[in-house]
Amino acid sequence: MNNRRCFIKKSILATAALTVPALPACVTISTTTAKVPMRSGRVDRALVLWYSQTGHTRRCGEVLAAALADKGIKVQAHDIREFKKQEKIDFDLLVLGSPVFYYDTPGFVKNFIRSLPDLKGIPVASYVSFGGPEGNQDNANYSILQLLSEKNGVPVGQKSFRSLSSFPLAWSTDTVHEKTWDARHLPDEQTFQSVRNYAGFVLGQIKENHPGTFVKKLTLREASTMFGPEWWTKLLVKNHHIIEENCVRCNACVKLCPVNAIDLGQYHVDTHACVMCFGCINTCEYQAIHMEYSKERVSGFKQFLEQHGIQPYLPPEVTL
Ligand SMILES: Cc1cc2nc3c(=O)[nH]c(=O)nc-3n(C[C@H](O)[C@H](O)[C@H](O)COP(=O)(O)O)c2cc1C
Ligand code: SF4
Ligand code: SF4
Q1: Going by CA atoms, what residue is nearest to atom 3 of ligand 3?
Q2: Hey, whose CA ends up nearest to atom 22 of ligand 1?
Q3: What pLDDT digit, counting tens, does each position of 224-235 carry?
Q4: How far is the CA of 91 from the centre of ligand 1 (A)?
Q5: What pLDDT is recorded for position 10?
Q6: Residue 160 confidence (pLDDT) above 50
Q7: Which one in 5, 85, 169, 278 has a CA-CA gap of 20 to 30 Å to 207?
């Protein structure tokens, strides 16, 4: 009975969150700012990290890293999954990027930040890529900065870059969701120019020793994160499994799954552990991941691009 009540409550909230336009974001529910003084006004070495599933956040990170390198800064840049745990982070700037998943920064990115050592006054900046436009992107950025400042990073900037949504349920019914289709060319050259400008802005804030104050606003999307929109999605997606005949055991899905829910030995997906990030279906090039939504087979990001002849724009700083 309790489960049923809980289900109904979650259903109503999730439906409201998906259908009602965002509340006017005017109520501040949390604020973050520097807890310690900024380390130095000079940036000789910078670390740019991101998590990326379908490449948007990675390309933004690479462009940002190139813009910093252009200013003579020595830059280390890579996906958080390639970042080896260190006792000490010896950089003059840390930039961290993430996609927005379910109106927030994904839990596994948050856990990565929690696992970092003390940042001891290093200036920190965040960015998110989002499918939006009502994707709660500012609050997702806030989540990154708040966690970094809890590690004694000094927040200097946050920025959101819109992209073609990588959320498969936006295109796996008869019609592609309108807002997804409208953003099919994003991120484009203009987006990447904002990324380059953002790098300049961050350096300016550090030079002027100007930490920022960042706020989280009350929005309907923000409220809905308390009721687990991924839980709701899991109820809508049926029959999630690996099609053994199609699978070439390339391991791409295993590497991407943030919760180790894929067992290739048994061709099994642990749907209880799954957090519905869609990484497996978005990555698989062989249509070997099966999911159903609204009685239709879900197609992954690569398949969607192929079907509609969409080619992601590659800025000059990025090779693939
Ligand atoms: C599971 C999932 C949930 C998503 N939720 C949101 C969201 O709440 N708000 C939003 O604006 N975009 C959302 N998106 C779209 C992604 O944030 C966006 O496409 C992002 O640029 C993907 O970055 P990547 O290519 O680096 O993985 C979601 C995508 C996925 C796969
Ligand atoms: S990505 Fe596709 S082909 Fe590769 S191991 Fe996973 S299911 Fe198999
Ligand atoms: S099994 Fe679930 S958590 Fe793992 S990659 Fe696939 S959708 Fe994401």
Answers
A1: 274
A2: 99
A3: 888 888 989 999
A4: 29
A5: 45
A6: yes
A7: 85
- Closest residue to atom 5 of ligand 3, CA basis: 257
> Ligand 2 atom 2: the closest Cα is on which residue?
284
Question: Is the pTM value of this prediction over 0.90?
Answer: yes
* CA angle 227–148–119, rounded 5-degree value: 155
Average pLDDT, integer, range 14-41: 71
**Domains along the chain?**
2-224 (3.40.50.360), 226-308 (3.30.70.20)
Pocket test for ligand 2, best of 241, 242, 277 (most atoms within 8 A of CB): 242
